[in-house]
Amino acid sequence: MAIKILILDDEREILNALKRLLKLDERFEPYVTTDPEKALNILKKENIQVVMSDIVMPEMNGIEFLEKAKEINGLVQVIMMSAYSTVERVLACLERGASDYIMKPFSDDEVRSVLDDIVRRLERWRRLVVLARGATLEARKQVGSEGPSTGLDATPQINEAATDSTTSPLNMVEERLIHLKEKYGNDHESLGVAIIKSIEQEENQLVREQLSMELGEVLREHPSEELLERVLISRDAYLRNMAIAIARELGEKMISTLEGLIESEDKDVRKLVLDIAS
Fold this sequence. Notes:
- It contains 12 helices and 5 strands.
- By secondary structure, the protein is of the alpha/beta class.
- It has 2 domains: 116 residues, Response regulator (Rossmann fold, 3-Layer(aba) Sandwich); 111 residues, Leucine-rich Repeat Variant (Alpha Horseshoe), CATH 1.25.10.
């Protein structure tokens, strides 16, 4: 699932350059505008996770826009951009919740580096949510397995109808993962392949996202040639980019796995391996 990123700048040239750059990265779905009010409306209507905003704009000061954006979505990651920077201005942005600050003119590599950091942060947050929800589900199961107690509190059982996974995508993910882990145990490669199949067959975006986070953990903890290749040939762009990012993150730990894949019969896999190694 692509990350929706909103770019706000009164310079059309900057907008077009960033849009072209982000179009080349399948992790992102860019939205662009020169109008701060339109940008705020987009934030209200779309699930925007990242914003890149200029500071000096005629209609609205970038710091004012940052404050309003955070009021709409306190978790949105905002990267501020400006050709005119002072220590006070940078601090003002960070104090109001900006995630990063880029000086103009900037290179494509600078933008990619900042966005890579943001993506890693979002993935960490998602993993924390999955872990927290998994712990909650386990606690519920333990309560249910203890059975009713005697006396006046003899009905503390969980209402299965109220917590049916069909009514909660996150519960659906948790229960599916518990089932897969019980089925495959320590066979991490088969577990990873099963998660990939679930992601590719799933239509619910939230479910796909949570399953992808779990797959990322399997790849990090148990990198294998077969599993990495299976992800790299996936038709899901989000999965492919996640695998590339994890392979780069692990560095030397992935060398033997990448060396095996360089001989893959799939030319696209060979190309991706070369991109990872570069």
